[in-house]
Amino acid sequence: MGQLILACRLILADLRHRPLHAGVFLVAVGAATAALAVGMSLSDANTGQYERTRAATRGPDLAVVTGTDGSADRAALADLARMPGVTGHGGPYRVLHTTVRAGGRPAQASVQGRDTAPATVDQPYVTSGHWVRPGGAVLERGFATALGVRVGDRITVAGRRFPVVGIAVTAATSVYPFEGEHLGPNDGSGLIWLADNDIRTMSSDEWPPNYALDLTLADPAATDAFRQRVADWSDAHADRSVRLSTRPWQEISAQNDVILADSQSTLVIGAWLLAVTAVAGLASLAALRATEQVRRAGLLKAAGATPGLVAAVLFAEYLVLALVAAGIGLAVAWLAVPALANPTGSLLAATAPVTPGTAIAVGTLALLVALLTTLGPAVRVARTATVPALAGTARPLQHPAGLTGLAGWLPVPVMLGLRLAARRVRRAVLAAAGLATAAAPVAGLLTWHFQTDDIPWYGDDFIMAQRALRLGRTHHTIVVLAVALLVLAALNTVVITWSTALDARRSLAVARAFGATPGQVTGALAIAQLPSAVAGVAIGMPVGVGLYWLVAPTTVTPPGWSLLLTGAAVVLGAAVLATVPARIGARRPVARILGSNLG
Q1: What is the distance between the alpha carbons of residues 98 and 148, in angstroms, rounded to a whole number?
Q2: In sequence order, which residues have a C-beta less than 8 Å from that of residue 298 and are 6 or more positions away?
Q3: DSSP 8-state class, residue 58
Q4: Which residue among 86, 114, 221, 517 is buried most deeply as judged by most CB within 10 Å?
Q5: Global pTM?
Q6: Measured between alpha carbons, how far is 507 from 458 in angstroms, rounded to an integer?
Q7: Radius of gyration of the chain from Cα atoms?
Q8: Alpha-helical regions (H) of 220-349
Q9: Residue 110 in contact with residue 96, Cβ under 8 Å?
Q10: What span, in angstroms and rounded, lies between the C-alpha atoms of 431 and 279?
Q11: Alpha carbon distance 598, 219 (integer Å)
């Protein structure tokens, strides 16, 4: 118990005395856990929103549409409504596929004729205005948002003007732009409800009218079996001219995930990229802190602490921070996912429950980052002998002796910079990995830029804009991840350069004592980061193109010159950032450094 109390007091003291280090950890790991939590929760949130909408609208278990409005089609629907296993039905409703204009903008829409009285199955939930009345139109909310239409505006449907009297949501169709109820092409149709008497006086030259029927079943989970019964019944009894299309509620719910499918994959991939970037910077920070804690480890050992207790105390602080970062990520997902999971507004908002699987994955990621970040430095400090630890002597750095002869021919900044990099290979590898993960989304954005002209043309500007909705969501996700990764990479560059300056302060002070200027030392610290930056960009740019291909397989590879120029810009940015902490470190007084006992 005494050891546990001691460990807790030491952890609290560290957090209180070094809040900046704790803040950097929480920001870096919190960004990774938030991306993973949001990516894993999007599908669950969409399902929850559809279930809430389905409950509020008394949504059907099976939606059936015909190919025409012939008498045989209507007779087939009437027979379906009386089949065993059907517990309720709505309709049949007449549906007209036609062009709608709002403010001069054309769009395709399925117009459904409805009664003014509420239906027992599939009664759209009005979120603004009121339900249909003769001479008034109600628009599905996602379609209305895309058109920029509100209650009180006017739209033109098949050549007739209607005021918009309401905005509503439904669970009988997929979210906009996948909601048209007809057997024609999937052209991004919206959904409009009119009074039944109004639609019966309308016609369209673009597509024949048809009928829609909504059914509820005794066993909503057995829709596949019921669909097969409908198909068998249609083959055996229905008129050969009748064409029936059935969509169960499970298929409608799954279709709602299409818009966010690429964004979800991008966020999960981005979470691991953020984790790698966090490890790259936090490992240098942990190593720097471990060097500062060598003397504390010596005091603990002198007081009787075992190496295991010393390592546990050093690691436990980051373990606590990892759990807090995991909580931050889950909280961000709980707050942000309901809005992100409903990009078109076609569903009712619902809270995003954090599933056990998501919580375990997020916690595992945070703990893995903490383990990779701190385990090595903590073990090295714990294994330092007591006497050297009390003296505050750090572990001596090794460097390849064969480079000494070559270094003598190089300019002073290059010689010192390459020497610093060669003596810290592990840190250079981590820095390269961190910059590679930052370069990957930059390459993804570059790949996106060269895809914009290759979206298949469907013949309508408005429909093309809606077709681009899924790609636009993916693009926005990549932009957010790229910004987050670049910010973390910039922070890593500053942290790594500063830790290198502190580790090498005695050797650099000796170089200055023999004539090296502060400017040459600054250049050396900046040059020390260049091998890692070049290697990271060389690896990250092709990886980014490959990851984009995994998310959107139909890609065109960016020209080599664009990748080269972008990579050079990333390397140059890293070099410029490195000069800031390098300049601060190079201005330390030589006499004070050489006169200290720090190695």
Answers
A1: 19
A2: 384, 386, 387, 388, 389, 390, 391, 392
A3: T
A4: 114
A5: 0.72
A6: 66
A7: 32
A8: 223-237, 249-255, 258-292, 294-302, 307-340
A9: yes
A10: 9
A11: 76
pLDDT of 104 strictly over 50 = yes
Q: Which residues contact 268 (CB under 8 A, 6 or more apart)?
A: 35, 36, 39, 40
Contacts of 212 (CB under 8 A, 6+ apart): 63, 64, 65, 66, 91, 92, 93, 95, 112, 172, 181
Backbone angles phi and psi of 283, in degrees to 5? -65, -40
Question: Residue 113 is encoded by which pair of tokens?
Answer: 């004729």
Which neighbouring-strand residues pair with 155? 162
Q: Which residues pair with 98 in a beta bridge?
A: 109
Lookup: tokens for 539: 């690896």
For 90, the token pair is 């709505």
The SS3 of residue 165 is strand
Torsion of CA 495, 499, 500, 504, to 10 degrees: 160
**Burial environment of residue 212 by CB neighbours within 10 A (0 to 12, 13 to 18, 19 or more):** buried
CA 307 vs CA 219, 298, 303, 310, 455: distances in Å: 63, 10, 12, 5, 61
Task: Measure the CA–CA gap between 592 and 598, rounded to whole angstroms.
Answer: 10
Q: How far is CA 442 from the centre of its chain?
A: 15
Q: Is the dihedral of CA 329, 333, 334, 336 positive or negative?
A: positive
The answer to whether residue 343 scores a pLDDT higher than 70 is yes
User: Of 194-203, 226-235, 426-435, 504-513, which gets the smallest average pLDDT?
Assistant: 504-513
Q: Report which secondary-structure segment, H or E, holds 54.
A: helix 19-56
CA dihedral 370, 374, 379, 381 (to 10 degrees): -150
What does the block give as tokens for 16?
A: 């209180």
d(CA 316, CA 322) in angstroms, rounded, equals: 10
Q: Is the pLDDT of residue 202 over 70?
A: yes
Long-range contacts of 590-598 (CB under 8 A, 24+ apart): 590/509, 590/512, 590/513, 593/505, 593/506, 593/509, 594/506, 594/509, 594/510, 594/513, 597/391, 597/392, 598/392, 598/394, 598/505, 598/506
The per-residue pLDDT for 461 is 46
